[in-house]
Every structure is written in structure tokens, then in C-alpha cells.
Amino acid sequence: MIIGIDLGTTNSAAAVWRDGEAVLIPNALGDLLTPSAVGLSDDDTLLVGLAARERHATHPHRTATAFKRYMGTRSEVTLGTRRFAAEDLSALVLSSLKADAEAFLGQAVTGAVITVPAYFNDRQRKATRRAGELAGLTVERLLNEPTAAALSYGLADRGEKEPFLVFDLGGGTFDVSVVEMFSGIVEVRSSAGDNRLGGEDFNGAIVEAAMPGLPADALAGADPEQRRALLREAAERCRRALTDADEAVFAVTWNDQRHETTVTTAAFEAAAKPLLDRLRDPVLRSLRDSDIRVEELSEVVLVGGATRMPLVRRTATRMFGRFPGTAVHPDHAVALGAAIQAGLKGRDVALEEIRLTDVCPFTLGVDQSVPDGRGGWRGGIFSPIIERNTPIPASRVATYVTLQDNQKAIEFNIYQGEARDVSGNVRLGSLTVPVPRGPAGQAVECRFSYDTSGLLEVDVHVPATGLSRNLVIVDDVDAPDPRTLARQREALAKLKRHPREDAANAALLARATRCFEAFTGDRREAVGHWIGQYEAVLDSQDPKTIAAASTNLTEALDQLEGERYL
Amino acid sequence: MIPPFACHRLGIPADADAPAIRRAYAQTLRALDVEADPEGFAELREARDTALAAARTAARATTLAPDPADLAPAPDPTGEGTDLPPLPATGLSEPPACSREGGSPEPQATPLDPHPDGITTTVTPTNEPPQTPDPRLHLDTPDLAPDPDDVDLHAGAIWRLLLPQGEPVARPLAPDELVALHAHLDALLTHPQLEALDGRTRAEGWLADLIDLAGPRADPMLLRAVTFFGWDRDRGALHQPPAIAAALARHDDKQFLSMVTRPGHRFHRAWLELTGHRGWGNLLVGRRRARDLVATIRRDHPALEAHLDGYKVGKLDTPPSGSWRTAVFAIWIVIAIARFALSDNGATPATPRPIVAATFTTPDADLDPALRAVGGPALTAAALARANPAYLRHLRGSWAEAKRTGRDPTDFAMEVMQDVGDRAGYARRTADYDTVTIGRRLQLDQARAIRDRLGTLACADYLNGEAQPDSVMRPFRDRQRDAIGRTILGMNGVPEAQGDGSFRIPGDIADSAAARAGLSRKAFGAAMTGKGPEPTRCTAWIALLETALALPPDKGAPILRAM
Questions:
Q1: How many angstroms separate the most distant Cα atoms in chain B?
Q2: A470: CATH
Q3: Spatial separation of the C-alpha atoms in residues A30 and B169, rounded to whole Å
Q4: Check: complex ipTM more than 0.85
Q5: SS3 helix, strand, coil % of chain A, rounded to 5?
Q6: For chain B, how many helices (H) and strands (E)?
Q7: Which helix (H) or strand (E) holds A319?
Q8: Same domain, yes or no, for A213 and A308?
Q9: What is the bridge-based pairing of β-strands A364-371 and A377-386?
Q10: Is residue A566 part of a domain?
């Protein structure tokens, strides 16, 4: 069984293609969205999802969030006494989703289509693939998030669609794709994006707008992690509240003192202006690359929770000169699109007519030397072989010549990026090929083949000797062999986990604990009281009383701080 | 018309329209396994794109007669004049195709009309004279509140400020013109119409082209334009449009220039030096700093290299490095010279210099080291005083003379050694048998050693009196010293050189020597008189030495003394 998974920065979701439609899979708490958060409880039990996220503000050293930002890097997070890489954390989220899917579908789930931001580079994609494998899933395909949203949007009514633009502002990344649909063919014309622009950054803008209103020593004594977690929690809440009102409360509690201030929309807009400016570049780039003008677009499709912000909607309206469409659910579209692709992979009959063609978002090439006008050579100049937004699978050849007489070999360094100087691009690997001795100008052909799963193959051929060398860019520095992968998987599987039934209770308890810390005085006392009662009920282990107590506690907390959000 | 290869690939007639092309493409794509046949997919895509482009051109040709004022070549394959600047593959392609409005009324917008309302009036490139330049920047976005006059007002004003009489001029803006320029630019950039993407893009292109055309007069605008449109965010990108890249480069150059002409910047002095300013600055400019400056300019600000003095830069530039062979050869030469200099070939003193005091003290104290160095430990001034006072007096006289004339003590010491050596040679003629044999035996051993190690030629040279390499002679040094010392101590008075060095060899000795050498009598004679070839001379001499030493004292002494 293959499912589709949207592995997001803030929230993740899973969906499946069933009976001719894409259906979202609820998790153990009954929610359709699972926060991408991983934590360890005080007795080192693994917590994934809402329970972990609720603990982020109170136990920042034992909780990790927004680790999608570190995919493709080697940085590690310490939870308690253990260290996790970003892939491990993503794998834990994926295995939680896998368990949810198996419970929902009643059968084993072996494969998944996982979505990645369109602008994820090669390293980040490989890391996502590894995370899937660590979770015990065969990664059938890595699908670009805006493409998934386009699939979900396009399949709603399979008519002809003039080119439309998918504007995907998620928790951590921003992607833009220009997509066209006709006769069942979904064709991505171009993709662009910004890997460091998302809802989390807007949280930073809220903090910036709120800081003047807080006393200077509000968080005195807090270490950086705690500080960051507390501010982020407050900012998230405030930002969501600003969706419906013109001003919202920003509150942090530290050292048993609660500090509140108000943030107005105007202040938020002023602080977020640089971020809003950055929204423009990828849009322009994708329009330019696809050769489509703004007025030719039939629709602008907003995807991603962060597009709910009125600020972003206003900016998009001004940018495009029209109101963006609301045909797709911003939180669900990507997961549903992934499920559609899973259905395509499974060759479902209902999807027989549909074909999807995507593009390569980055330019791929090698480094070369160019004459510098003074008889010398300037090295490190990027020579593109596959231009960005080439439809994939793509295969292109370029010919290079030796620079000097009696040169023994040519070394190809493979890069991905847009900068003219290779130092500004991402290095993927290198390949050396011996050349026959002779005067400068010996020709060598270099062929790049890039397939739909994002695997780059480099073939170098020397016509004079008939020698060929081949390099498959699997991993730049260290290709983990299957044993290492298996070992890593075992290590992750060894973590203690709650039984599935207890997940909801754990999340509720974590929420209550957070409220306890967030409030002071009478309210804190009250919450403490409720927690004590609830724990007593949990000990009784009677399902009915537990369910009733959970409902009561949830209501009480909702009254206190507003409804729980995802 | 659609090219045949595309028709064939897609299975469509040559006059198919866009929807038909798309349907055919969809059908063919469905039948194709894209993963297994990437080349086929690429072909199909290319066929479709070409077909669509051809169909578009055909459709346009039927709806609009060609406008002669248009610039014909459109580098983009779609053939449609997009108002966004088309993307060049590298930064070196020609500037985007420009279209001009000849002032004719705007045509009604048709679906495939390439010049709908709001055509961008981009500025013509500098190599073509603008015919009727239109300062209006038409931004027409029907959905937003239209206010074209407002935008065009400011755009026109900016245009007129930068291009008086429609032509680029060299003189910079006057202060009041500058104020007006900034005011209009502010108004233009904050206009609500620029919030829409297309308006902004057109304004960006228009401004970039205007900056390019107006030249340095537009420099005050550069900073504002760069920061507003964020051109510096794409710095160094492959696909940056050339006009924008040029404007950004000018902006960067301006910044760099203003920084480097400020005292205190790390390149300031190097800049002054290389731009030809005289002054004491050039003494304090290190070559490395100057080279760094030139490298920075060449890499990041190539246009600024024109400011530098070519001669000075040329002096700094090292020639392109030669192959490693040159370096190896140079090193080899240096090593060879060093070896030669350090080796004992040539006129190196056979004995090491004695260690003497830096100044003259007493005669005996100064003579002792020299005597010991040449004559061994036995030959001291005191011993000489006992054995040969006359010679010692002679040496002391030389010392006094040297001291009086202020000679270098080391030179004097060397002279003494030379003198002692020479006297020893002369003294042999009158020395007793034992002393002579010791000397001659030593000579024989040396000759044999040289002959064996260096060959007969070297041996002949040695026997002629030329100094030989230290490496061969060193083992005999001690013996030589002792021999000299013994001779000096045994001699009487101060012997002088006598005769011309020739001597007679009695016939029977000559015969036995010749026989020993394996030579004929005649050859032997020739060798002894220095006429034969060197190898023979060497052999002959050695043979004679051996023969003479083998003789009883009374027979051999005269020969040995005389040799």
C-alpha cells in the first residue's frame, strides 16, 4: 500500500488514494494534521506530534521542532542525553504517520510518496529519502510540494486550465510553481522558491514587533533555547490571533511572572516588510522562466498555513492584481496531491488519463575556466549543462576541452545553483577522467541525466580513446551503506513509545502542563488543580471516566487560553 | 507553418492550431513511458514547443499587419514580444528585444496581440539613435485604480532630466535637477501601480534601460534603484538580465570607488599609487597589497581597471607561470653553482686556515698556529728556535713587517704556511736520506691514490705540481704535515730555490724504471722530459719513484733529492 505524506516544517499530514479520491488519514488524536515535533518525556519515552509540540515551551531541551530546516546538513539536536540528526527526527515523524495510516487502513503500508519543497537541493532531497527509509518506508517518489498542490487543485475539475500559479508559503519554505493543465496532462512550467522563508520567519517578525512592549528583563536568566521556545510559542499564538483581529496579545511567562503586550497589525506589517519583499523574487523568477505574463495566469492558488495571514493575502492581491483563489484547503492540498501521485504510481484506473511532468528547479553544471583577457585563465566559472526549469527527465551533453598541453586528466566538479561563480553553488560531487596526451584542446563530452526522482547521473566520454566514466550522485560525502542504515533504524526503533491509545491523553496532559507554566496566580492554581484531578483519573485506568475527564479538561483549557490550534 | 519533424512526432497537420497541438501532445505523452525513454520525452517536448511557437506566429500574422517601426529580431522562440525582458541563456547575449511605439494610436487589444494596451516603451540600445523616444511608461492594470497620467508624469520628468533633448549628455546633474530627480523617482517608486508584478517589472526594465542609456548622469539614481528592486540580491546570478547586471555593476563600482578613495581603507594607498598619483605614498605600498587590489578590481569591478596606470599594473603582473621544468632547471643550476663554489676544484688552499687571533700579539704566539697547521704538532716556534733559529728569525722579521704595515693576521698566517711549505721543498735537496724518503714515499702514495681515484691525467697534473681535490688528499694530510715539520726542523738556515728543477737520471736506474713502467727507454725518456702523453708520464714518474726508493741509500739518495 502506498500513501502520500506531506512532511512539513510545522505540520505533517498523510493521505491515501482510495475509491477514486484522495482521503486524509487522521492520527491517533483524531486530527488530520500532526505537528512535526519530536520530544522525550521525563522518563525518556518518545513523543511525536501534538504532545511534543505542547512541551516545546516548557521543556525546550527535550523537544525539537522545525527540524526540516536542518535536513541536508549534519547538525544534530540534543534531546535529553541523546543526539538526533534532522533525518532521524523526520523519520520518527514519518513512522508515526505510518502507524496512523496502518491503523486507519487496516493493512500494512510499505511505500510512500513524500513531498519536498520544490527548491530543496540535492542534499536535502537525499536526506528526506533517507528519513523515509529509516522509517521503514520505500520512498516511491519525492514530489515537489507546489506540484502536489497543483495536482490536488487540477483534479478537482479535470477541465482545461490556463496556466495557474501555486503560491505555497509553508512553515519554513516558500515555493512558487507555474502549472498548466490540459487533456489530463499536468505540466509544471517552472518552479522557484526560497528555502528560508516561512511562517516561522513571520513569528520572528512578531517577536520583533512585540519586544519593545515587554520589559527588558522579562526573560532574564533564560538560556537561549528556552528564550527562543517561549518567544516562538507566544508569537505563534499572537500571529494566529491577528488573522481575525486588528491587534492581539503577546504573552510570555517566565520566573512566575507573566508579561503581556499588544501587537497591532500595522506594527506586524512594518516588522514583516522585508519578508514580504522577499515573496516577490521567486514569483518573478518563475514567471520569467516560464515565459508567462501575470495577466495570462488564470488563477493564483494559495497553499500552506501561512497564507491564511491577511498580510500575505493582501500582498498577493497587490502583486497579482487580483484576488487569489480559495479553491483548495491550504493545509491539506499538498497531502492530497501526494496521495494522487501515490495513486498514479499504483496505476489506479481512475487516474489513467493523468500524467504529470515536472521540472528541475536548479541549474546543474560543472566548473570551467574561461580566458581572462590577459593570456591567463580564470577558473571556478559555472558552466550550466541542464538549465533550470528543464522538463525532467532530462539529458544534456556539453563538450569541454583541455586547457594545457600534455594534460593528463580533466576533473569535473558538479554543482547545482544559479551563481556564475561556483563558490556560490552547491557542490554535488566530482568525476575525473584521464585524457590522451596531446596539445591543448582534447575534447571530452559530459552528459548529465536527471530523472524524475531527482537522481543525477553523470557520464563522461572521451571520443579520442573511447573511454567512458560514470558517476551516480548518490551522496556527496558519505553514502550510508545498508548496514549503517539498518543500525540507525534499530536505534530509533529502540526508543520507548507510548501505546497508541494513550497518545491523546499524553497530548492533553502536555497542554495542561504548558498552561500551568504560562499562567500565574489564581489561574495557575486552578490549572494545577485540574492536572492533579486528571492524573488521578488516568491512574484509575477506566476508559469511560478517562474520556469524560479528558473532555472536561479540554473544555476548561479552551476557556482559559482559546481553542487548541494546529 | 509547423516544421515537418514536429508534425511527424505529434501526428498533426501542418496548419494545426494550439488546442489541437496540445491534444496531440497529451495523447503521445500518455503512450510514452517517460522514465524509460527520456530522450523520446525530450524530443516530444521540443516538437510541441516548436509547433506551438509556429502556430502562434501564424495566428499573429493573420490578425495584425507587421508594424515597420518594430525592431524585427526577437530572440525568444515563442515569437511573442513579452513585456518582461526575455531571459538570456548567459549574461553575454544581446539586450532584450525592444519595441517602440511610433506615436500611433494604440491598436485594439486582440487575444494574440503582441502589443496590447500598456506596451512598455523600452529604451533603444545605445548604438541606435532613438527616433521618437517615448518618455511615457505605460502602466495599465485595469483591476487597480488606473492613474496613468500620474506615473507617466514622473517617468517623463525623469526621462527629461536625464536625457535633455532626448540625447545622453556627459555633464552631471545640477543640484536643483538632482532634487527634482529624487522627488520624481520617489513618487514613481511608491506609486501603487508598482505594487502589481507586471507594473513593477516594466518599471524595472524601463529604469534599467534608462540608466544604461543616460550613462554617468544617471548615477545618483543607482543606489535607490538597486535597493528598491533588490538587484543586489541576484548579484552574480547567471540569468540576471544584462541591463540590470550593468546597472548593478555600475553601482558596485561607485561604492568601491568611494570606499577606496577614503584614507584608511586598506587599499587606499595602493589605489593612489596605481592610479598614478605621486607622493610619499608609494614608498609604503607593499607589492602584495597592490596585487590584491588589482586582483579585487579584476574580479569584482573590471570597469575600474581603466583608472589604473597600465604601466604600473604591468610591472606588478607576474608573467604567466612557466612550466615546472623551468623551476626545476633553475634549482638545478643553483645547486650546481653551490656545489661548485663549495667544492675543492680549483685554487682552494690544500690546508685549512689556521685559527689566529684577530690582531697581532707576539711573534711566536701568532706564528705557532700557522706552523702547526702546516707542519704538524711538532713544528712550533719554540722547536724552531732550537732547531733552526735563522729561519725563525726570518719568520719573525716577516711578522714585524706585517704588523707594521697593518696586514690581516689571517692573511699573514697563510703566507707563513706557504713559505714554510716552499722552504720544505727546497730543503729536501739537502736533507738527510730518511727525511727525503719519507717525503718521496708520501709523494708516491699520493700519486698512486690520485691515479687510482682520479685517473692518470690527474696524476700527471699532480706530479706537475697542481693542487688536487681535498677528497683525495685529505688522508695524507697528517703525513704531509709531519714530513714538512720534520724537514723544516732538520734544515739549516733558510733554503732558497735552486736550479730549474731538472736532474739527470743514471742509465741503469732509467732502464729499470722503464722496465717497471712497461715502457721503452725512449718513451720513458720522453715522458720524463715532459713530452709524452700524460698517462705515460704518470706511469713513468711512479715507476721512477718506486725504483729510486728501492735502491740502497747511496744510490737512491741523489735521485730522490733531485726529483
A1: 140
A2: 2.60.34.10
A3: 72
A4: no
A5: 40, 30, 30
A6: 24, 0
A7: helix A310-320
A8: no
A9: antiparallel
A10: no
**Residue A217: CATH number of its domain:** 3.90.640.10
Whether residue A538 sits in one domain with residue A526: yes
- Any idea what the CATH number is for the domain that residue A325 is in? 3.30.420.40
Report the domain count for chain A: 4
Whether A15 and A33 map to the same domain: the answer is yes
The domain boundary, picked from A359, A382, A412, lies at A359
CA distances from residue A62 to A28, A52, A93, B157 in whole angstroms, order as listed: 22, 9, 16, 62
Distance between CA atoms of residues A310 and B295, nearest Å? 49
Q: Chain-wide mean pLDDT for chain B?
A: 77
Q: CB–CB of B33/B41 below 8 Å?
A: no
A17-21, B31-35, B203-207: least confidently modelled range: B31-35
Q: Is the pLDDT of residue A438 over 50?
A: yes
Active site residue A140: no
In chain B, which residue's Cα lies nearest the Cα of A451? Answer: B35
CA–CA–CA angle A294, B213, B154 (5° rounding): 60
Best CA proximity match to A113, nearest among A8, A10, A16:
A16
In a domain, A129, yes or no: yes
- pLDDT above 70 coverage of chain B, percent: 79
Q: Residue B250 is which amino acid?
A: R
Q: A127 and A81 share a domain?
A: yes
CB of A296 within 8 Å of any CB in chain B?
A: no
Report residue B135's pLDDT band, with 50, 70 and 90 as the boundaries.
Answer: low
- A384/B238 Cβ within 8 A: yes
Residue of B nearest to A385 (CA): B89
Q: Are residues A300 and A394 in the same domain?
A: no
Q: By the 8 A CB rule, do A242 and A248 touch?
A: yes
Is residue A345 part of the annotated active site? The answer reads no
Residue pair B97/B75 in contact (Cβ under 8 Å)? The answer is yes
Of A185, A289, A320, the CB nearest to B197: A320
- Look at residues A359, A380, A411 and tell me which one is the last residue of a structural domain: A359
Residue B147, helix vs strand vs coil: coil
The pTM for the full model equals 0.69
Residue A48's SS3 state is: strand
CB contact under 8 A, B238 and A293: no
Three-class SS of residue A470?
strand
Same domain for A242 and A322, yes or no, is no
- Asked whether residue A48 falls in the same domain as residue A175, the answer is yes
Does A126 reside within a domain?
Answer: yes
Cα distances (angstroms) measured from residue A102 to each of A105, A495, B7, B137? 5, 20, 50, 61
The pLDDT-based confidence of A293 (bands split at 50, 70, 90) is confident
Of A169-183, A475-489, B181-195, B248-262, the one with minimum mean pLDDT is A475-489
- Is A395 an 8 Å CB contact of chain B? yes
Cis preceding-peptide flag for B168 (omega within 30 of 0): no
For residue A424, pLDDT over 70 is answered with yes
pLDDT digits (tens, 9 = 90+) for A457-502: 899 999 888 888 888 775 544 555 667 778 888 888 888 887 777 8
Mutate to test the interface with A, among B238, B298, B313, B325 (most CBs of A within 10 A): B238
Full residue range of the structural domain in which residue A181 is found: 2-197+279-359
The pLDDT value recorded for residue B543 is: 87
Q: What is the mean pLDDT of residues B179-201?
A: 87
Residues near B376 by beta carbon (within 8 Å), at least 6 away in sequence: B478, B481, B482, B484, B485
The residue type found at B55 is: A
Q: Is residue A516 part of a domain?
A: yes
Q: Do A68 and A192 have their domain in common?
A: yes
Q: DSSP per residue over B192-232, as a string?
A: GGGGSHHHHHHHHHHHHHHHHHHGGGGHHHHHHHHHHHTGG
Put simply, the answer to whether A355 touches B197 (Cβ < 8 Å) is no
Is A6 tagged catalytic?
yes
> Residue B166: left if φ>0, alpha if ψ -120 to 50, beta else—which one?
left
Q: Find, among A1, A51, A48, A52, the residue nearest to A23 by Cα.
A: A1
Q: Do A395 and B39 touch (CB under 8 A)?
A: yes
